Amino acid sequence: MAGFIGRLPRHALRLPILFYRYTLSSFMGRQCRYLPTCSEYAEEAVMRHGALAGSVMATARICRCNPWGGHGYDPVPRCLPAEARWYRFWRYGVWRMPKGPDDVG
C-alpha cells in the first residue's frame, strides 16, 4: 500500500501530460525540435525520477525548446545530478544544452 501511495504523485502528473499529447498537441502542430518530444520526455522523467525531479526536468526541457534553443536527440538522464537536492530543486534540470563535449554546465 505504501508503494502505491508513493507512486501516486507520478501518476497524477502523468494525466495532464497524456491529455496534452492526445488533444492540444495536435492543434499546436507536431514540429518538435527534439527527440523524444517534450511530452514523451516529461512523461519519462516523471515516471523515472519522481514528481519533483521529473517536473523540474520537464520544465527545463520546455524552456530549452524555443526558436533560439537547441535541437536533436536529448534523452532523459538515467540518474539524477549529484549536486541536486530537494531544497535545490532547480539543479535537477538542464537549462541550457551543452555546446560541445567540454561544456558541461
Write up this protein:
The protein is mostly helical and 105 residues long. Helices cover 50% and strands 4% of the residues. The protein has helices at 2-28, 38-49, 51-64; strands at 34-35, 72-73. Strands 1-2 form a two-stranded parallel sheet. α1 (2-28) packs antiparallel against α2 and α2 (38-49) runs antiparallel to α3. The radius of gyration is 14 Å and the shape is flat. The model has no long low-confidence stretch (mean pLDDT 85). Belongs to the UPF0161 family. It is found in: Cell membrane. This is Putative membrane protein insertion efficiency factor. Could be involved in insertion of integral membrane proteins into the membrane. Pfam families: YidD.
Q: Which percent band covers the strand fraction?
A: under 5%
SS field, number of helical segments:
3
The quaternary state of the protein chains shown equals single chain
- Total count of strands: 2
Q: Give the biggest beta sheet.
A: 2 strands, parallel
Q: How would the global form be characterised?
A: flat
Q: Helical percent range? A: 40-55%
Q: Give the integer mean of the pLDDT values.
A: 85
Query: Could you tell me the radius of gyration in angstroms?
Result: 14 Å
Name the structural class: mainly alpha
In short:
By secondary structure, this protein is mostly helical. The chain has helices spanning about 1-30, 40-50, 50-65, and strands at about 35, 70-75.
Secondary structure layout plus pairing:
Layout: H1 2-28, E1 34-35, H2 38-49, H3 51-64, E2 72-73
Parallel strand pairs: 1-2
Helix pairs in contact: 1-2, 2-3
